[in-house]
Amino acid sequence: MKKFIILTLIGVIFASIFAIDAQAAKKGKAKSKISKEFLEQTETEIDRLTTKIYGRALLSPQDNESLITIKIKLDNQMVQGSAPELAPLYYKTGNILKMRNLNKDAIECYQTVLENFAGTAFAPKAKSALQEMGVEIKEPENIDENLSDKIQ
């Protein structure tokens, strides 16, 4: 009987610890907004790299590292939660990657815009860029049409 009570108490303690961690994680996600500083720094760096590429200058190893870092930071931010402010950053990063012939990564950026920011002005641009790259884009099916077809 003593063992049962002790095991029950230990179970309750562990359950309460995990519950507290889950609540803290939810609160952390609710608070995780994109900082203005992050947006400004990222946009400045993207614009710098874009200008350098359009100026026909070669990217240095540090520039390439910066480009990779931008992509990683954007992806990490998406894990915390998407926000419309990320759409232009993803689109511009996709453009740079495309100009650098890093098509796989460029496609990922454009698809992120299409999937997560469909309501922004960057979605049609991303779709057009994907089509230019020869990527087949599947439009989401209209649920109402499917239901009416099944009913008839």
Describe the protein's architecture and organization.
By secondary structure, the chain is mainly α. Helices cover 77% and strands 0% of the residues. The protein contains seven helices and no strands. The protein has helices at 2-31, 36-54, 61-80, 86-99, 103-116, 122-132, 143-151. Helix 2 (36-54) packs antiparallel against helix 3 (61-80). The model is unreliable at 19-32 and 142-152 (pLDDT under 50).
Question: Key terms for this structure?
Answer:
152 residues, mainly alpha, 7 helices, elongated, disordered C terminus
- How many DSSP helices? 7
Residue fraction in strands: under 5%
- The unreliable regions are 19-32, 142-152
Kindly state the number of beta strands.
0
* Main sheet record: none
Which structural class should the secondary elements be placed in? Answer: mainly alpha
Give the C-alpha Rg.
Answer: 23 Å
| Percent helix | over 70%
Distance between the amino and carboxyl termini: 64 Å
SSE succession: HHHHHHH
Rough outline: elongated
Rounded mean pLDDT is 78
